[in-house]
Write a structure and sequence with these properties.
The protein has helices at 22-35, 50-57, 61-73, 92-116, 119-127, 141-158, 162-182, 188-204, 208-229, 232-244; strands at residues 47-48, 77-80, 84-87. The protein has 245 residues and is mainly alpha-helical. Strand 2 and strand 3 form a beta hairpin.
Length: 245
């Protein structure tokens, strides 16, 4: 399968400011764009070119190159001799392991939310889903996918644990991407919303055991779905494994 260089130009990139480290800003911008690129929703490899990225961000190619080196170190990009730099896509087994790790960290975050977050902070979780009270999530699947992402970020943030936030940061890119690729399948969006509401209700009751259990069940349900229905993940990574094994 031939890579598709043109997809790199479709990453959502905006010019960055020049008051801080250009390398760090380029790193953050590229990582954010990769997270929003739906890397598991298609079978094409995504190759990144320095020139269009440099033009989109409004900086020279040097900080772009430095940022890409950091992203490769962190496991988001890979370099293949004579082929270029590609966004890394994980195998199905790797994705499941990442979801399992996320489930463990988020369930602890949920425990901490019941112990540390204020009633007002917990109530803010309801607002994430306000527009889906009368409109089915499937009818606005893109917006619901964004709300889903916001909810899981909010849980980690409200835990008050900087370490959990850092540990989930890199996991979240791939977990978010696979959530986006699967949320529209079957009745997953509606079930997801119900489960989110149950988690919020347990948090409001300060029912730590129930909140932890519901959070684990919710996230491990995604792992189970990936195991049973996402054979496309291994097909999508066969090509990259051929070059990196």
């Amino acid at each position: 399968m031939k890579p598709t260089p043109s997809r790199a130009s479709r990453l959502k990139l905006e010019p960055i400011e020049t008051t801080l480290s250009l390398r760090d800003q380029a790193y953050a911008a590229l990582k954010r764009a990769i997270a929003e690129a739906d890397i598991y929703s298609h079978s094409e490899e995504i190759r990144l070119d320095e020139r269009p990225i440099s033009q989109a961000l409004g900086v020279s190619r040097t900080p772009i190159r430095e940022a890409m080196t950091l992203l490769e170190r962190d496991g988001f990009l890979r370099t293949e001799p004579r082929r270029g730099i590609f966004i890394v896509r994980k195998s199905k087994r790797q994705i499941i392991e990442m979801i399992e790790a996320w489930a463990a960290l988020e369930s602890m975050a949920v425990r901490l939310v019941t112990e540390r977050a204020s009633d007002v902070e917990i109530r803010t979780l309801h607002r994430i889903f306000d527009e889906f009270v009368e409109v089915r999530p499937a009818a606005r699947i893109d917006k619901y996918s964004d709300a889903n992402t916001e909810f899981h970020h909010a849980i980690v943030r409200l835990s008050g644990s900087e370490l959990i936030e850092r540990m989930t940061g890199n996991l979240f890119l791939h977990v978010r991407a696979i959530r986006r690729a699967t949320i529209a399948q079957g009745c997953r969006a509606e079930r997801s919303l119900r489960e989110h509401m149950d988690i919020i209700a347990a948090l409001e009751r300060r029912d730590t055991a129930a909140a932890e259990r519901l959070s684990l069940t919710h996230t491990l349900g995604l792992a189970d779905y990936v195991e049973k229905h996402c054979g496309f993940l291994d097909r999508a990574t066969e090509h990259s494994h051929h070059y990196t094994s």
